[in-house]
Every structure is written in structure tokens, then in C-alpha cells.
Amino acid sequence: MTASKTKLKKTKYTKAQQELATRYRQAWDYLYAEASDWIKNVIIDEPTGRHAKDLAREVAKLAESNREIPKVRK
């Protein structure tokens, strides 16, 4: 006897959720690019550390505000 397989439903996101996710990504890219090299290294070495939390807090503030997020050249 085998167990029946159930299909997982693909989560559907609203347009507002997709836009906010895009803003979070843009804010992260911008603020990370603006950070100094030593802060970037600390964030990579300690992703749950103080500097990473500070950056995450600033990302949330910028993403949820009405301010325009500058584009980052990659």
C-alpha cells in the first residue's frame, strides 16, 4: 500500500506583495552597496550580528517609506 501523493499549491502573491518584495530587494542592494567594505565583510561573516541587524532595520525603513530608492549599478 502506498500513500497518495498530494500536490502542493503554489502560493499566489498579490501585486502589492510583489511590489513590496521588489522594493525590499532594491533597498537591500542600494544600502549594501553604500556600506563600507569592512561592514560588508562583517555582515558576510556574521549574518545575524549587530551590523547585519542594523542594515536590515534600515532596509525595512527605506522599503516601507514612500521615498524613491536609487538604482544600483551592478
Mind explaining what this structure looks like?
With 74 residues, the protein is mainly alpha-helical. It has a domain at 15-64. Helix content is 59%, strand content 0%. It has helices at residues 15-34, 37-45, 50-64. Helix 1 crosses helix 3. It is extended, with a radius of gyration of 18 Å. The N and C termini lie far apart (54 Å). The model has no long low-confidence stretch (mean pLDDT 92).
Shape: extended
The H/E string reads HHH
The helix tally amounts to 3
Unreliably modeled segments: none
Structural class category = mainly alpha
Give the assembly state of these chains: single chain
Number of strands: 0
Helical fraction? 55-70%
Task: Report Rg.
Answer: 18 Å
Rounded mean pLDDT is 92
Taking the sheet with the most strands, its summary is: none
* Measured distance between first and last alpha carbons: 54 Å
Tell me what portion of residues adopts beta-strand conformation: under 5%
Question: What descriptive keywords fit this protein?
Answer:
74 residues; mainly alpha
